[in-house]
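OP here, attaching both records as promised.
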Amino acid sequence: MNIRMFSSWQVRCGIADPHAREMFKELNALPDTHLEMVPFDRKPHPRSDYAAWGRCLNEGDVAHIQFDYSFFDYLLPWREKFTAMRREIQKPLVITRHVSFDGPLLLADRSAKGWIRRAKWRLYQHALNPYATFLNRTIFEQAAHVIVLTTRLKEQLLRRGIGADKISVIPAGVRKPPAITGGDQIRAKYGWQDKRIIGQFGFIAPPKGHTLTLEALARLPEDRVLLIAGGLRLAEHQPFLDDLNARIRKLGLENRVRITGFLEEFDVAAHVGACDALAFPYTHADFSQSVADALAFAHAPVVASDIPGHREIAGYCPALRLFASGDAQALADALARAVNDLSRIADDRAVMRQYAVEYSWNSIARRTRDVYAGLLR
């Protein structure tokens, strides 16, 4: 079985790394399966390049697109480039839908700005908007099969009229994490040997809820500190980082917060090892690879907002602790329990380790291969 997959590749992107990278490795390790990438560099390209990539996808028995709207010039109809690729593809097409622009806008923001954004979103979602129909239904109607990461994304497609037999829910997998070493050195680096450290991992971006974590931290005892382990993925997010630093100063948390900047993969385990709890207060995520990987480390309690994507992961791994999204006091209470209740951590770690086995990338690759085999039959 020969597969050609279009995906972002060898760039800083949650689809390229780890999704495409791990699928490449694990699918090629399966018997009678050969996957080659048709790589996308996340840079602007003319429609002729998309047409050429579509023809490249015909070189396999099955074509597979890892789909993000930004790969195809986003939401503006005069820039859309998916059609240029799709019209060239002759082989059975599988699309993995990573993100959604369907359903209600899940924002915890209750300000006037938040209400305006929700009102604009409702206009976009209106049934008489043909481009919303194209983005949320027509694209996926053109696939022989659609893979989604959560049941919420499946339900959206069902409401749009896509048949249930064309949709499979296959979440992203988790890698076997490296051994936890070096945590004491990270604590010493920041002078936090006698502190209880809360870690927030991942790129710094508006939906990640860093400001909420700061507000929660301000309600916790002085010996609770915050390690923001990550940096900016996009240059246009610099104003958000500036606002985050301003908020730290306003709350008087300068001595209780450290921001590492971008971490190389080999540095992540040591920073996880320094933490007594991990926080993921995202306001929106169709699926969170950061939460999944945090659970796979099986080291510290993991606290996450109760948005649909996180509730789905909690269904796979009950050790994930959820709090009411957007509620700083609820987050503070959840973090206090996570740090203080040491009697539960052994049981949590056992559940996390089992999750890492059942949802390994090898398991996810096998389920994906079953989709390909079904189409070829």
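Record two, same layout:
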Amino acid sequence: MSNPGPQAWEHALHVLQYAYDNRHEGILYRSDGNTHPISYYDASFGPDPTDGKCTYGYSTHLFGGPVSWLSKKLPHVGTHVGQNETAAQCFGGKQTVWIKYLIEEIQQNEMLPIPLLGDNDQATRLSQEDMMTSGNKYYYTPYYWTKEVNNVLIQTGRVDTKENVSDILTKAADKATCDKLHPRMTGHTGCEGTLFTFDPLAAKYCP
């Protein structure tokens, strides 16, 4: 922002338009939402042509709404989607563990591992099994951290791509995907999309 140009101005207007169009929505937390945290992560494989790096994202949800989320470019170039997903899993896992520690400090009570769900089978298996293949043997070593904490602090698992809340944090998704996942990301239907929609303006549920 030290030297903004016409493109930065266009992006700023786009953000303001989005904020205006969604001014009645916001983030919703609800008593019928999940009482145990759950995290989702995802990574794209649409490299930035200027540096070859892709976007990843993660979100952690509690009582239906997000308590932590991020959308950012990966620090390393991935040569295939499994490598990017493994990196995203690691970053999402670290934030999930921080959430776990924070809640435990507040409650003064140890809690069960927090589910960390992604839609890439290769990344999920790599966090659960001691397997070395021609496709993963060159991964950046710190990304294997999830193997150490799996089933201790986090619990990695799979979620279908169409149900992965963090999918909209990694790419320009189509309208149908946004319409489905946006209410989940903001807590209006819960992160699993199974809760009745709540209208904050009318203060009532909309079955």
